[in-house]
Known about the structure:
disordered C terminus; nine-stranded mixed β-sheet; elongated; alpha/beta; single chain; 22 strands
Amino acid sequence: MPRSTTKPPRPQYRCAECGWETGKWVGRCGECQAWGSVAEAGTPTVRAASGPVTTAAVPIGQVQVSESAFRGTGVPELDRVLGGGLVPGAAILLAGEPGVGKSTLLLEVAAQTAREGRRVLYVTGEESAGQVRMRADRTGGVHDQLYLAAETDLGAVLTHIEQVRPDLVVVDSVQTIGAAGIEGVPGGVTQVKEVSAALVRVAKTRDIATVLVGHVTKDGGIAGPRVLEHLVDVVLHFEGDRNSRFRMVRAVKNRFGPVDEVGCFDLGADGITAVADPTGLFVEHLHGRVAGTCVAVTMEGRRPLLAEVQALVTPSPLERPRRTTSGLDGSRIAMVLAVLQQHCGIRLHGHDVFASTVGGARLSEPASDLAVAVALASATHLTPPPVGVVAMGEIGLSGELRRVRDLPQRLAEASRLGFKMAVVPAELHLPDAPRSHRTDRMVEGMRVVEVRDVLSALLLLNLTTRSKQSLSVVDDG
């Protein structure tokens, strides 16, 4: 009997964490570097043959866009992040930590959309229908156009979509939905990939805006395969500190709008509300003089936000003094302390230093370096800075101040909130200009002082008694 010449298909191996595929088994994934997550995935798929087309290809100028216009969600801050609202047929992925308020936000969006006369289907796989109804009663989200279904099977979800024919579908969450006939458990790589592909396909073919809730890993990344982020049109991250009511929605990917916008929300017992002006949550002392404080202007996307930096400096009995931060980057604080000691004569090697922000704000932008330096110098000398002063600028290792982006927007926001003076880096660094050179000008009704280095800023605010000449003599000695 002749021997068959057909070679059996080579096995494929797939990572259970990220979906990475390889032709041979390895102990460590080459994509996410996870150990022991690569297992055999079965035979490779057969290449598909050509078939009939769904719709004929037409010139791009003849494509109608009137049906793909933005539709507001009723939540202005979310519309700001999305670029104007929900687009029919768009697939949106909202990810966030447990308890941050994802379900509360989407229930509010569903209720607002239903109040506008559009039909909404809310599919919950994590809670029972009664639990969601209790939340809706508490937040005022009960409406006749809002349909609720508690399902964990993909086929049942698709049947609900066919029967209800909604304009908006919310699936909470995609990791809890399973597809029959697909290997793996709900939440696994294969299941998440199949469920997401099926829901996105229905959204595109029927022009239904679909919002999928996603889980995050302990590192803050979106759980499941990376292909999930490629399938959807918009990826949103819902962020917030559990000790604070303030929440932020940040766009990571957006095919319909900008990715540098953020939305601000206040999560309370009665639901979630948009915060159009969140500066008041991060600034305590607008008109009072308090030692160890300074107001910084940071950019969250395109939005300027004012945040107050507080510092406390005390003598330390420890051989290695403590450096404690909250809401600030510890490595940036260490660099600012080194610059203050080397170039400003502020010796803090024998002191405990505590630095934090007000209201749970997180300042990771280098433009807040100058505000941190001013707060530390003020806490060291127990001298409060002048009233109504904001400081912004990146500090270099040689003590110079570097320019920051979007300076006009920052100044306009500070002026709108009543601040009278801003200390900013000099726009032009002239090589023949003296080190004490500074420029005063009026911008947006506010006095703007440009300085070249951090020592000039501290001298301007009367936060140091060391002059440049005396400091240079000590350094030379």
